[in-house]
Amino acid sequence: MRDYRRETRVYKIRKYLKLGILITIVVIYLLPIYGMFNLAFRPRAEMFTGFFVITQPTLENFVEAYEYGAYSAIVNSAIITAGGVGLALALAVLASYAFSRFKVKGKNLLMFYILSTRMMPPITLIIPIFIMYYTVGLKGTYLGLILVYGMMALPLSVWMTKSFIDDVPKDIDEAAMIDGHSTMYILFKIVLPMVIPGIAASAAFAAITIWNEFLFALLLSGIDTKPTSVLLSSIRGERGFNWGRVAAIEVIYIIPIIILVFWLQKHMLRGLTFGTVRR
């Protein structure tokens, strides 16, 4: 009886200890986000007083963000992200199906090479890309940013999409071929609809990567194509930083990604397993 009580007591202690650690981690992660939202709705006169409570919430920081060009920058980020994700997925679907279904010589080596390009530090590529873009006139254009971001998101998209296509039985392809369907018909009309969750997961991770990228955007964007990540780095008022305006732009910046993550969280979780969890 004493042993049972002791085990129960130890179990409860471990349970509450784990709960306490979990709550601590959540607070550590959420406190900066709360602070950002807090500053965004705080008037300038109360910017550094009473961190946890806002006595007079205001939208003046969002008005200043609009005047500073935040909403145009968000549109630029959306255009660049959508274009980069679309390009990466279009190429990834074709490459993934080829690697999954066809006998490609040196397949494993090629797959490793594709992924290894993602491991390369971006700063090692920025100078040759900058010179090339400046020479051909792609610097400061949407097309130039979409191309570089599409290639940046391609390696992980290929690996993730292939893992989902591998889960589709090859018997389905063979049956469709017997019926006289072409390879492209099988891919786009039969296989692709079956791996929509995988496509969604690949799109989500690619979008997060492109949306948050800063280095290429800083050096390759122009005045009219500047995304929000670059805009945030250039904010400075006549009397220093306007932290309320900065926080307002940050709130506008993270909301689309928060919505995307909540919308596709199930697909993203499966994408992290790379096909190891069977449906």
Automatic annotation (TrEMBL):
<comment type="similarity">
    <text>Belongs to the binding-protein-dependent transport system permease family.</text>
</comment>
<feature type="transmembrane region" description="Helical">
    <location>
        <begin position="243"/>
        <end position="264"/>
    </location>
</feature>
<dbReference type="InterPro" id="IPR035906">
    <property type="entry name" value="MetI-like_sf"/>
</dbReference>
<keyword id="KW-0812">Transmembrane</keyword>
<keyword id="KW-0813">Transport</keyword>
<feature type="transmembrane region" description="Helical">
    <location>
        <begin position="73"/>
        <end position="98"/>
    </location>
</feature>
<dbReference type="InterPro" id="IPR000515">
    <property type="entry name" value="MetI-like"/>
</dbReference>
<keyword id="KW-1133">Transmembrane helix</keyword>
<feature type="transmembrane region" description="Helical">
    <location>
        <begin position="21"/>
        <end position="41"/>
    </location>
</feature>
<feature type="transmembrane region" description="Helical">
    <location>
        <begin position="110"/>
        <end position="136"/>
    </location>
</feature>
<dbReference type="InterPro" id="IPR050901">
    <property type="entry name" value="BP-dep_ABC_trans_perm"/>
</dbReference>
<feature type="transmembrane region" description="Helical">
    <location>
        <begin position="186"/>
        <end position="211"/>
    </location>
</feature>
<dbReference type="GO" id="GO:0005886">
    <property type="term" value="C:plasma membrane"/>
</dbReference>
<dbReference type="Pfam" id="PF00528">
    <property type="entry name" value="BPD_transp_1"/>
</dbReference>
<dbReference type="GO" id="GO:0055085">
    <property type="term" value="P:transmembrane transport"/>
</dbReference>
<keyword id="KW-1003">Cell membrane</keyword>
<feature type="domain" description="ABC transmembrane type-1">
    <location>
        <begin position="74"/>
        <end position="264"/>
    </location>
</feature>
<keyword id="KW-0472">Membrane</keyword>
<protein>
    <submittedName>
        <fullName>Carbohydrate ABC transporter permease</fullName>
    </submittedName>
</protein>
<feature type="transmembrane region" description="Helical">
    <location>
        <begin position="142"/>
        <end position="165"/>
    </location>
</feature>
